[in-house]
Amino acid sequence: MLLVLDDKITRDQKAKITSLLSEDGCITREITDAGQHIIGIIAKNKRREEDYKGLEGVADVRTIKTSHKLVSRDFQSEDTLVKIGNVVVGGDRIVVVAGPCAVESHTQAMTIAKEVKRYGAVLFRGGAYKPRSSPYSFQGMEEEGLKILADVREKTGLGVVTEMTSPAQADLMEKYVDVVQIGARNMQNFELLKCVGKMSKPVVLKRGLASTIQEWLMSAEYIVAGGNKNVILCERGIRTFEPYTRNTLDLSAIPVLKQLTHLPIMIDPSHATGIREKVSPMARAAIAAGADALMIEVHNDPDNALSDGPQSLYPEQFGELTRDLYVIAPVVGKQLDFDYLKRSEVIRQMNGGGTTTAAFIGENGDYSHKASLSYFGDEVTCLPMKSYRDIFNACASGNVEFGVIPVENSLSGSIHENFDLLQEYDLKIIGEVTLRIKHALIAHGDAQKNGIRTILASPPAFSQCKNFMDQSPGMDPQPVKANTSAVRQLKDCDDATVAAIGSAMAADLFNLKVIEDSIEDNPRNFTRFAIISKESKGAKKVSKTSIIFSTGNKPGALFEVMKVFSTYEINLVKLESRPILGKPWEYMFYADLEADILSDALAPMMAALREKSEVLRILGRY
User: Is residue 108 pLDDT above 60, yes or no?
Assistant: First the structure.
């Protein structure tokens, strides 16, 4: 049962409620969900729903009917974000866990850790205790393996994940590792579940070999009921009659779990398929299906691995997979961040550990806001601003550390105002994020589509949803400044005949209903956002450079610059001209290069560019 507390509840009223529940012997949990303060009564509640409704300070009482109480969406509608150091599982950034099945030696573990980190992994997995089908198989290095994992964390900065097989290992796990894994064979080892429920470490709970989703969730309930709410559900394949794979990976569990529970979902395609060539396709499919994280086995010498070599990817194969995931992720509203750990370190160092801020245009719930969250997670405070110039001024003056600005849309082209501002201000591009733009028709909870008479939206949103508007002759368009402004205006008007076009995130934020999703004409609608800063604190590994340059006013001047890029085989992914401010008929060129222009290998190219250009300025390396 859930007691939803009144927003104006007094301290004395709350004290009386908690005292009453304590006297009744209730097990309780307090949470804040969707802006509401809630006390969950998990067991032994002796009173009826009506008894609680009469208590002062209680706004509403709800009954949880599912067996899995604490992990259910009924208990908590918002997704749980599991924090592991600087890494957050369950947000917009996909978390990739990679490493060998077993820790075999210090050299082996350190070699693989450096490789997987280079290719985008943010956590390192490796077994120190190995429950094997045969008593004669390698059983793991035990505490010595844990010490190696701890040294991997110390040397690489990667948090470490390992399996716990007995309650007797609890103290060692607390001492050496960051995440405890409960393997498939122990999913219903209830004494072990109770033990990790009392631990301080996040838990990866793997699905049993032949367990139903309900049984799996009840095992998670044991852990959360014990006090540890940081649980990640890991689908690793279930046993079926199919012999062509080691197990059958149940990707249908992802959308089912997303509806049933607020816990984040990890997929382990390595144990599911058991075959190296099948791992990458299933990993790609898992991200497309909505997984929050992946656990991939990687080994530098799988032919001689002491455990599960045939299913382990070579480091280069792992690198190919993460590049594929980088492309796939934005389609489902996610990001794969190759510089996740470095950025978190930089943000933590800024302002001496105080509040770090990022400015975006619009209001909370707008796509610029979502871009800020996708890039920074919850490590910065996002501040809405009214104009792009306001963002540049705030960054230049030091009032905010970062700015998030859209620079181009796949359908409507470049946002020229921001390119002009980049020319005007001495700021650096330190990164970028690409989002798929999905427009939704949003209305009040009691509204029906056939009753909508007015639609609020920004002019670009109307143009991108032209087909929908043409097929809705009874709905009159009413332009507003920005999509989220439209959603806010809809919320304030309290009229069931009025709807707005905006993001599903904005609908959730304002507690409104999505009547129809994906109403945009073209599904290939992506916007690229640049992250700007006064100081150049970008990526440790640079793969892209943004520059501006101008050429002399003579025939072939631009060709000469382009020839330099061609000579050094540098790929230009963007080239655009803009008038030079205050100089009619003179132009500045913006270019994005797939290279680190300041690398030692490209020093001759930089010299040639400076010779052929009248002005050359690096906007950012990221």
Answer: yes
